[in-house]
Amino acid sequence: MLLIFDIYINYMNESNRKYLWQCIQKAGDYLNGQLPSHPNHPNGRNPYAHVAICIKNKFNISYKDIDDNKLEEVLGYIEYLKDNPQKLFLYSHILSEYLFNAVIFFIGILIFLLYISLFNQFISSI
Q1: Is the same domain home to 66 and 103?
Q2: CB 30, CB 82: distance < 8 Å
Q3: Is 20 in the same domain as 69?
Q4: Which of 71, 80, 81, 122 is deepest in the core (most CB within 10 A)?
Q5: pTM for the full predicted model
């Protein structure tokens, strides 16, 4: 447990972390050769990194730092990745959900500022 600005952050205990890593390795073994090809990976993709990156993108934190209470949710997500190797790959490597939300937020701010600017021009022309 870590105290940062009066917020407690729980990390996964060592035994759960080791168990989760074993599950990631088994999923990587299962996904070996199933991920779509890509010109940036001429020798093939690393399925272990794929699973770890997908977990990080979904939970916005490394698998090692996820709370113990989310272990079952992470294990369920790993099973989902195994069942859908083609489906999530593009999402996980183009834009994470976190980055996507940030982009949408800043676009909203730009539209708001444009609206204010146009409104001020309209008021000053009256």
Answers
A1: no
A2: yes
A3: yes
A4: 81
A5: 0.62
